[in-house]
Design goal:
The chain has helices spanning 8-25, 114-125, 143-147, 176-190, 202-210, 225-234, 246-249, 267-277, 282-289, 294-308, 312-334, 361-370, and strands at residues 5-6, 31-35, 42-46, 49-54, 57-63, 77-84, 92-96, 102-103, 134-139, 157-158, 169-170, 195-199, 218-220, 239-245, 344-350, 356-359. With 371 residues, it is α/β, with parallel strands linked by helices. Helix 1 (8-25) runs parallel beside helix 2, helix 4 runs parallel beside helix 6 (225-234) and helix 8 runs antiparallel to helix 9 (282-289).
Length: 371
């Protein structure tokens, strides 16, 4: 059985609680309790070091433990500096220090997302008197170097890692045990809703909620899209909206239903093929095919539209989205003993700036029902 751990926001929060405790009591903690909120349980987190920096500020250090998840942040140190201050406004002000990424589409704001903000604010406010205020600065000393090994830049986050997540629990995403857990969650939600939204990762989950989709209808699939679609069909789910980053979902247009890059990666071939079918001139197809990433290829197509007043992005990605829907129906039919699958699939693809590129016809209909 795979061992679960905790996400980065939990360790950042634990360090902040320990630093605040030192400021108030001048005593170091070796373990802190964090209310995860999502899920509703308490985590006990080990504190590696605590030190006072000045009369009004302190620093505490924890280390990431994501369990058996294949996470490159394993054992990385997380620092939290807490300092008293007097001013107007919020009682807990959260800042990103060294190693916390910056959002290119958010005027350089620290990449500390909704769950992390809520986790830190709620846990720390409980420890403050009504008239007390603190500034919390989260620091990831190894964040800048670790970020070079992630796809953060594809989502507009640079110079560090993001504190992203919708839960405090870090589950192994690529093991059979995790697929079982995903299936159990799907079974529970399929008993409540006829329409569900499949999100591969945290970016999709976060964006879907910001667009107003009911969190209870969101199902995380990681890379197990094929098995999860079949399971949904068996459970009688009527409609599935595939909501994801175009660099992942595009694989489905090529019939790749386990999207981990170690197993299969035909993204540039799929994108170039759709461009060719629609008549994009060969020199441009060549550039698309040899683009280093799907994001770079999208940027190139957008530049063509800007220069020539063309409509290639809309044409190509609408064709891809419709192909994804068709491929999903074919996949379900091939894995079913029925002539036709019960489940109807639609798709929505977004870019690195979390802006929707395209919605298939069915995806547009489902978005209208969900938002």
């Amino acid at each position: 059985m795979s061992r679960s751990g905790y996400t980065l926001p939990v360790f950042a929060c634990a360090a902040a609680v320990a630093a605040l405790h030192w400021l108030r009591h001048r005593q170091p903690l070796t373990v802190t309790s964090v209310d995860l909120i999502e899920p509703a349980q308490i985590a006990e987190i080990a504190i590696e070091q605590v030190a006072g920096i000045s009369e009004n500020s302190a620093l505490a250090i924890t280390r990431s433990d994501p369990g058996d998840n294949l996470d490159l942040t394993r054992n990385t140190p997380i620092w939290a500096m807490v300092e008293w201050f007097k001013g107007d406004g919020e009682r807990v002000i959260i800042k990103g220090g060294e190693g916390i990424g910056k959002q290119l589409n958010g005027e350089g704001n620290a990449a500390i997302y909704a769950y992390a903000q809520r986790l830190l604010t709620e846990n720390l406010q409980r420890l403050l008197a009504p008239d007390e205020q603190i500034i919390v600065t989260i620091i990831l000393p190894e964040g800048r170097s670790l970020a070079l090994r992630t796809s953060n830049a594809a989502f507009g986050v640079v110079e560090g890692l993001s504190l992203l997540g919708t839960t405090g629990i870090s589950q192994p995403l690529s093991t059979p045990d995790q697929l079982t857990a995903f299936r159990n969650e799907l079974k529970d939600k399929a008993s409540q809703f006829e329409t569900l939204v499949f999100c591969i990762g945290e970016n999709g989950l976060d964006l879907a909620q910001k667009l107003g989709i009911n969190p209870q209808q969101l199902v995380k699939t990681a890379n197990w899209l094929g098995p999860m679609l079949v399971e949904a069909d068996i459970l009688g789910v009527k409609e599935i909206l595939l909501f994801g980053y175009h660099g992942k979902l595009i694989k489905l247009a090529g019939g790749i239903f386990h999207t981990h890059h170690h197993l299969a990666d035909g993204r540039r071939e799929i994108l170039a093929a759709h461009c060719g079918i629609l008549g994009l001139p060969y020199p441009h197809i060549y550039t698309v095919f040899y683009s280093p990433t799907t994001e770079a290829a999208l940027k190139y197509l957008r530049s063509l539209d800007s220069i020539y007043n063309s409509d290639w992005v809309n044409q190509v990605y609408r064709y891809i989205a419709e192909t994804i829907d068709m491929r999903c129906q074919e996949y379900l039919k091939s894995h079913s003993d029925r002539v036709t699958a019960k489940t109807v699939c639609g798709s929505v693809l977004f870019d690195r700036d979390r802006q929707i590129i395209v919605q298939s016809k069915t995806g547009c209909m489902l978005m209208g029902k969900l938002c």
